[in-house]
Amino acid sequence: MLTDAAAGLPRTLLERARAAGELICLDLPLMIEGQIFPEAADPRVREHLVLAAAEGRSMSTSRPSPGAVSRALAALAAAGCTEVVALTISGELSGTVQTLRTAARESPIPVRVLDTRTVAAAQAAGVAAALAAARTGADADRVLEAAQAALEATQLLFWVPSLEQLGRSGRVPRALARVGQMLHVKPIATVEQGRLRYLERPRQEGPAVQRFAELVAQRATRAVLADAAARGVPDD
Predict the structure, then answer these.
(1) Which of the ends of the chain has fewer CB neighbours closer than 10 A, N or C?
(2) Beta strand pairing call for 188-192 and 195-200
(3) Which residues contact 43 (CB under 8 A, 6 or more apart)?
(4) CA-to-CA separations, 69 to 63, 81, 98, 101, 233, in angstroms, rounded
(5) Is the CA virtual torsion 157, 161, 163, 168 positive or negative?
(6) Distances (CA, A) of 12 to 9, 16, 17, 19, 128
(7) Strands 84-88 and 2-4: what pairing?
(8) pTM of the predicted model, to two decimals?
(9) For residue 200, which phi and psi values (nearest 5 degrees)?
(10) 109 — phi, psi (to 5°)?
């Protein structure tokens, strides 16, 4: 399998899958005002991050290079894989999926690319489900079905403690980010149809955390009730 660092996979899951030769996780290169650091393990990355943050420089991530993807696919083929399932960050948030699809055409083995239409823990849920299916000996179709089912059953919700970095990266217009910072806005957001969507814009950290907890509880309750209804369990 193949995925990218936007999934934020738990270290234990990632290390186990890597050791077993089941998964390669592609780094998303860091870009600081046009300078690209392609490897997260580069010892200079942390230093440059700290300096860029202190100096207020723009920072963002970039898609993996075609060469990095080709090397990953070649490594999986050399390890004995006969087909690869690749799960990527939403194509609305990154060009990673396009890079994967381009590299797939030149791959020594077939590659099935799935745009998860999400990111972070929701993307990780899809990867974990796909890995679990693959470990049972499932073929690529069933692995993709497992991933898709997990993605559809997962809701992503997060709150943003500071708009500063979103402004620097271009995800939010800088002028709007500055106003938000002045007003202490702490947006609560999700990813829907592959795109970032702001749900509410509470002010101050305390109210933001409280409202975030309320929204999580509401969504969890709705999910439990919907699951019970689907299984024909009476609503008590």
Answers:
(1) C
(2) antiparallel
(3) none
(4) 10, 15, 11, 10, 46
(5) negative
(6) 8, 6, 9, 11, 12
(7) parallel
(8) 0.83
(9) -145, 160
(10) -135, 155
Compute the distance between CA of residue 112 and CA of residue 88 in angstroms, rounded to an integer: 11
C-alpha dihedral sign at 91, 94, 96, 98: positive
- Three-state SS string over the chain comes to CEEEHHHCCCHHHHHHHHHCCCCEEECCCEEECCEEECCCCCCHHHHHHHHHHHHCCCEEECCCCHHHHHHHHHHHHHCCCCCEEEEECCCCCCCHHHHHHHHHCCCCCCEEEEECCCCHHHHHHHHHHHHHHHHCCCCHHHHHHHHHHHHHCCCCCEECCCCHHHHHHCCCCHHHHHHHHHCCECCEEEEECCEEEEEECCECHHHHHHHHHHHHHHHHHHHHHHHHHHCCCCCC
Which tokens hold the place of 190? 């999700």
Q: What is the mean pLDDT of each run of 10 residues along the chain (236 residues)?
A: 93 90 89 69 66 68 89 91 95 94 93 96 96 94 97 91 69 68 84 90 89 92 82 68
- Give the per-residue pLDDT at 43: 64
Residue linked to tokens 């005002």: 33
The Cβ-side half-sphere exposure at 78, using a 13 Å CA radius, reads 7
Angle CA 65–69–71, to nearest 5? 115
